[in-house]
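idk why but the lab printer keeps eating my pages so im just putting this in chat instead. protein + 5-phosphoarabinonic acid:
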Amino acid sequence: MSRNKNRLVWTGAWPFDCALCAAHKDNCQISNDNPAARKNVAARLLAELQSGSLPFVSLDYASGLCEQLQGLCGRLEPFKHLLLLGIGGSALGARALQKAFYPQQDWPGHADAPNAKYLWVADNIDPESLPQWFDRLPAIQTLVVVISKSGGTIETMSQYFLAKNWLQSQLGPDWQRHMLLITDARKGFLREEADTLGLASLPVPENLGGRYSVLSAVGLLPAMFLGINWEELLAGAKELFAPLNLASTPDDMEKALSAHPAWNLAVWAALMQDKGFNELIYFTYVPKLAAFGAWFAQLWAESLGKDGKGSMPLPATGVTDQHSLQQMFLDGPNNKACLFISCPNLPDGSSFPTGLDARWEYLAGKSLRELLLAETLGSKMALSDRKIPLLELELALPDEFNTGKLISLLGLATIFTGWMMGINPQDQPAVELGKRLAKASLGADNLESEKEMLMKFRNIPEKIQEF
Ligand code: PA5
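predcted complex ->
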């Protein structure tokens, strides 16, 4: 049963002409998707679901995970601090959930709240902040959670070595109770560590890469630690994927696909790229979901930036970035499409008092929500007026259930867009070279060609200006 109605709203329904107005009027490709592409995507989706290679959609790991998380609940309870070590898809989702559903950590007075929890996300190898956390966190009240799907990411592993050392020096033989690893179920260095040292661990399902893993233990364990309603996040995902998981023949799947918002969003996004809109603004007018901008940027960029193709994601937050990036959106190069995230049903917030100066009287009695919605409308109309193709994703409510749907919708639309582009949206081969070069420069073995590249690079003459 559908508990909420979210909506995709195309600018084609607006009284404005957008950059694609000719298409809108005569043969709107935004609503008439490409049947050949749909057939291919439906066949592939069915095959991947049947072979179990798309856990992001099948969620076949979910019931086992629920049991594991419920079983760990009591074990997490005594800890006040969770120090999360991870990077990219192993950190961005947890941070976005924290900012959306546990904002109180950043609010005044949190320290005095009964049972206050703290999530610290260490997703960089910052020589300044990591030692500070080790200096300031009470080890006895801290659980270190190391998240790495591959179990071999140099940044996360280096943090792990330091954190292990810190816990051992602070807690002696008890240190193991303060560490939990989330990694591949069978392979990788971190899995070996869990097995050898007898550390608590949770698996990341096979074929569930970092940026698609927020609704696995990767995002849900930190969410559970904070008391976020993680079951509802999963429930939203399940509902969004249900029609696709129910389809059992190519015909059924095609029908399910053509009615599915992830497909319609992907058709729009692929069309935008084909039409030369090589930047995609992700404009969030739901302030609590602002941190999902960084999560989406990673999802979109790492999944689709391949073979010289893709569109550059530009995360922006309304209204904040109306005073920052919006000028460029409106009056810079006309190469941007916009995914516009809104929600009419936000809480009212404070109301403005009466008796304001005459120039501000129109605000009296209105709520913060009304002001935000007026600015949402103004910004959307200004973007459309500048012929920026805009697809609005309107959430019924900014709660966990609908956020689960949002995460799932964006992830699946990204996969479909990648399939239509003829690239693999689930790998990220180009980023490997930089990592290998970094390791080579530190003297790691078996990287001879990288060491040669380094030598050549160091011999390239530089022009230098000191300042
Ligand atoms: O989305 C991805 O796959 C990547 O951003 C990874 O999350 C990131 O590289 C970290 O990898 P791992 O989880 O294997 O440490």
